Amino acid sequence: MENVLLQTLQENVSKWRLSGYKGIQKETHIILNHIKRIGFLHAPQVEALETYIFLKEIVGNKPIVDVVKSLFDNEKDLILSFGLPEKEALDLAFDKEKDKKILELLEKKYNGIDYPNQVYALTMGAGKTILMGTMMLYDFTLAFYHPEDIRFGKNALVFAPDTTIIESLKEIKTFDYSKVLPKEYQSIILNIKYHYLESPETPVNPIGNYNVIVSNSQKIILKTRHIDNGQERLFRDETVLKNQAVENKRLQAIRELKDLIVFVDEAHHSFGTTLEGTLKKTKKTINYIHTEGKTPLVGVVNLTGTPYIKNEMISDVVYHFGLKQGIEKGILKQVRFFEYGNVKTGEFIEDVITKFWEEYKENKLENKLPKIAFYASNIADLQQELRPKLESVLSKLKIPASKILEYHTEAEENKESFFLLDTPASKKQFILLVGKGTEGWNCKSLVACALFRKPKSSIFVLQSSTRCLRSVGDNSTVASVFLSEENSKILDKELQNNFATSIEELKNQEQKTITHELIVEKRKKVKVKKQLKEIISAENQKANDIKIGWAEFKEDKYLPYLAESGILLNSTQIAEYQKGLSKKKLEIKGNFTFYDIVEVINRNTLLPCLEIEKILTQNLSRNEVVEKINSNLSLIAFVIENILQKAFKYEEKITIYEEELELTKQYPFKINVAQNENDLVVYKKDENESRLGFHINPYNFDSRDEKELFRELRKTLDKDEAIVDIYFTGGVTDSVHNDFYFEYFSPDEQRVARYFPDFLVETTKGRYLVVEVKSNKEKMTYERNKSEYDGKRENLFDEVFAKELGFREFQKINEDFEYRIIFDAGLQAQQIRLYEEIKGL
User: Fold this and answer.
1) Mean of all residue pLDDT scores within the chain
2) What is the sign, positive or negative, of the torsion defined by CA atoms of 15, 17, 18, 22?
3) Looking at the record's lineage, which domain of life comes first (predicted)?
4) How do 317-321 and 117-122 pair as beta strands?
């Protein structure tokens, strides 16, 4: 049965996204806009982050049971969401004790947890680790600016199922934060302290807030207490005692952290029905931290690539991006499966190596050699059979044996080489593994996997077989998986249980996007004038000279108040809106210490704390400052404003400078185009020869109007007319490759955005015509906004008109540029009108 919670929640997130993210904090808006502008995260990562923010800021960071109640406020829909048989659902709807029974069903289905607990299911290679890091940075940023808001975590604990995944989780610390966090918030990163607990001896000593603790769950798991006796004391292993003491100290230190958010990586371990022992105790430990910690948990975020148990999706899943979707969207490689029946080990190895070498050879991917991993069931099998036969096959093919890397518990000397495999420096291509290279191994240049012997664990077949699916380069490489007949059956079953798919489906899964490489046909640079506006702050007074004008404090400007109005019956018994019935001051007392006050002022003025102390104690003692501010908290805002006015002076400096805009930066590069829009990609060879157009090849139009307009322009203009060239610039909307954009205020996004025009027409007069192509249905709103606009930003509501306003600002210092909007350009009449306008230049 489908996950009704997931479906309903994502519908709500989609509506909220379309509304322009209404109801979120200012900092969140800025972070989301930055992420979308940079484009570093994959679409599923952005969607998962949006879901996380929606549940935290819009729904209110509630336990999953309360989330379900808020999503299904209609009782009928709530009952149907349980997936009960029709008769059972009908009986429940008319049951006298239905409220009690509905609550019991909710508690049973969603585990009755009283803290937020969400599962984000993203297939391998979709970037769960980076998503986790982004979620942490979002929480820490919001907690920094809103320290009293308990929805945001100030510390993070990451549970990993084993030590191999701890290694891959180091990416949380090393990835480029500027890709997901705007510059103005990056100073917050300096406060983060990382604690990677890789061995039992590693202690954890978190200081203050903004700690990230990454641990194998076994290292801080809640221990079962045993009754002590004399015999145990006599024969107890002191090493075990010492390690257990460290573990207890770890758990104690973690419990002391305030506002803790827990991330469970590869979360299917803690939900699994067949896993016993420490992995099943992860939940118990989390519950213990929640109830016994200094403050309740902010929430638990579970990340997994396998959200199915026995072919049924985990109930708590709030976002899902599956294996099939990953292949369709070009995030994972396409894959071929080769099944071998009634074949001996030697024949299997020879055929696999031959196929691998024919397909991949030494053709580098992102400057890294392609690799194949052989998974052996045990070390003896690897060393006595697999490796000798592999070396024999390589010798026949004249491939040096130095390309082999062997890694397992008896070959730990190769650990460093193993972790360097996905780098240009590695010369290894044939990787022999036992008990290594499954979950957490991120090697994009791994293009093939081979399993012949049946391993002890069925899940191992799934984990190892899918390691080679991570995308690399332009993702045109197809992965290969080589399996014995027995392992092929196991993999098929595990794919159905964990991904609700099968080998057959994945073999037939084509990417629904087509890759095109854009190359430069004519390099083009355009000289323009730009205006640089700088707000320069300079020190105005020394701290010793700044005196707070306490007497200037005007209560009405800063004090909180309660205003009352209403719709009431007047003396003639007619209902009318009565505004300002009463207005009263709210008395809000504080309990700040002197250091609290200094910290708040420091956060808002960035002045050193010692200087702030000097300013505050010019005329008053510390105790007098504390007493004064705690009696009226509005004074803090006044003090901050007073200090900023006196400590700094601000000047606006405007500089006009000339810049060369390049239309073809960092080429060639590749783009993915949806299969159903591939006819909008036009190559130079597809058109009649002409001197006009194609500064890059191909052009990827985003509408048929643009495509037809371009063809019409090229058809009607010849060498004798006053046109130097036509450039389609709207197909590359990334400043990494195209400098030709203007800034404008976007009414949809409520921020300054970039606008890449569709066409640039160069004329022999040294002037340029900038052409924007829009559909006819956008014309009415554009004209209404244009006629009604009074120059106030709050009255700007149309994106097309807003872009025109942005261009006008550019045009004030670039008079040789003109702007035209063509609505419904596909029509012949509009094409002729454009032609007439061009002729008149």
Assistant:
1) 76
2) positive
3) Bacteria
4) parallel
Distance, CA of 511 to CA of 329 (rounded, Å):
6
Domains in the chain (CATH in brackets) are: 114-308 (3.40.50.300), 325-511 (3.40.50.300), 534-653 (no CATH), 658-839 (3.40.1350)
Q: How confident is the model at residue 430, as a pLDDT? A: 96
pLDDT-based confidence at residue 829 (cuts at 50, 70, 90)? very low
In sequence order, which ranges of 513-608 are alpha helices (DSSP H)?
Answer: 555-558, 594-605
Q: Which residues contact 294 (CB under 8 A, 6 or more apart)?
A: 255, 256, 257, 258
Residue 421 clears pLDDT 50, i.e. is over it: yes
Encode 463-528 in three state secondary structure: HHHHHHHECCCCCCCCEEEEEEHHHHHHHHHHHHHHHCCCHHHHHCCCCCEEEEEEEECCCCEEEE
Whole-Å CA distances, 544 to 330, 609, 615, 617: 61, 13, 7, 10
Kindly give, in sequence order, each residue whose CB lies less than 8 Å from that of residue 475, ignoring residues fewer than 6 positions away: 330, 331, 332, 333, 511, 515, 672
* 52, 118 contact by CB (below 8 A): yes
Query: What stretches of 2-96 adopt beta strand conformation (E)?
Result: none
Question: What tokens were used for 562?
Answer: 């309660």
Whether 601 has a pLDDT exceeding 80, the answer reads yes
| β-pair partners for 760 | 727, 770
CB contact set of 414 (below 8 Å; sequence gap of 6+): 405, 406, 407
Task: Count other C-beta atoms under 10 Å from residue 834's C-beta.
Answer: 22
Place of tokens 């994959």: 42
Give the C-alpha separation, 579 to 664, whole Å: 60
What pLDDT digit, counting tens, does each position of 117-163 carry? 999 999 888 888 899 999 999 999 999 999 999 999 999 998 876 65
Q: What is the pLDDT of residues 504-516, one digit of tens each?
A: 666 665 555 555 5
d(CA 81, CA 77): 6
- pTM tops 0.85, yes or no: no
> Which of the two residues, 496 and 812, has the higher pLDDT score?
812
- Residue pair 788/747 in contact (Cβ under 8 Å)? The answer is no
Residues 6+ apart with CB under 8 A from 367: 424
Q: Do 371 and 428 meet the contact criterion of CB atoms below 8 Å apart?
A: yes
- Give me the amino acid identity at 825: A
SS3 helix, strand, coil % of the chain, rounded to 5? 45, 20, 35
- Helix (H/G/I), strand (E/B), else coil: 147: coil
- Residue whose structure tokens are 């702050």: 537
Residue 393's φ and ψ, nearest 5 degrees, are -65, -45
Backbone angles phi, psi at 673, to 5 degrees: -120, 135
> For 394, how many CA atoms within 13 A lie in the half-sphere containing its CB?
15
State the distance between the two ends of the chain, measured CA to CA, in whole angstroms: 64
pLDDT greater at residue 214 or residue 687 = 214
